[in-house]
Design goal:
It contains 6 helices and 7 strands, in the order E-H-E-H-E-H-E-H-H-E-H-E-E. The chain is α/β, with parallel strands linked by helices. It has one domain: Rossmann fold, CATH 3.40.50.300. Helix 2 links the parallel strand 2 and strand 3. Helix 4 crosses helix 6. The longest helix is centred in the last third of the chain and has 18 residues.
């Protein structure tokens, strides 16, 4: 079975996770012996984030397994990918946040770049269905701080690079999905300061 990877992007509360979960549930219902694994990247560092995580967990359909992958996303993908497993990565936005804004306060940009490259190299080789969820944050005004501009640029580059390795791209707007096949394009360069 040919891999079928997809990137779902949109703003906050656009319905990205709900749409991805529906795709996973539909896929699960199509044949016996299939599984769904959510690779969760969020860290519960405060009460508000703990509540968000709990809400996401409660909203997920029964039978979805969850693997926590706040940093080692590539390792988790390689371990979980199989023809009978639908993998839902929720989300690239928080994964990048964990790398660029760690609780320790100092980002290891060389380690981030190595992890990013590992993901991009592994993705085309991974079997089964993998759906990535990510925020589209580049439609607003340019952020005021250098760090915020770097984050927005880096997420945009990550989304473009992942999309280039997926077969489908979906934009979520007000709970509505706009999907299309991905056209081959050159990958954006990574300009870390």
């Amino acid at each position: 079975m040919k891999p079928q990877h997809q990137l779902i992007v949109g703003g906050q509360r656009s319905g990205k996770s709900r749409h991805a979960e529906k795709l996973a549930q539909d896929w699960l219902n199509q044949a016996a012996g299939r599984r769904v694994t959510v690779l969760a990247t969020a860290l519960a560092l405060d009460e508000e984030m703990q509540a968000r995580i709990a809400r996401h967990q409660a909203d997920r359909p029964a039978g979805f397994a969850t693997v926590e992958a706040p940093l080692a996303l590539t390792t988790a993908l390689v371990q979980e990918a199989s023809a009978d497993n639908f993998i839902l990565v929720d989300c690239l936005t928080l994964w990048l946040t964990n790398w660029l804004m760690p609780i320790s306060g100092t980002a290891d940009l060389a380690a981030w770049e190595a992890e990013r490259q590992a993901l991009l190299q592994a993705l085309p080789t991974l079997p089964g269905r993998i759906v990535f969820v990510s925020n589209e944050v580049g439609w607003g005004v340019s952020p005021m701080s250098r760090e915020a501009r770097f984050y927005v640029d880096e997420l945009g580059r990550l989304n473009q690079a992942v999309a280039a390795r997926c077969q489908d791209l979906t934009l979520m707007v007000a709970g509505q999905a706009w999907s299309r096949p991905v056209q081959t394009q050159s990958e954006p360069s990574c300009n870390t300061p």
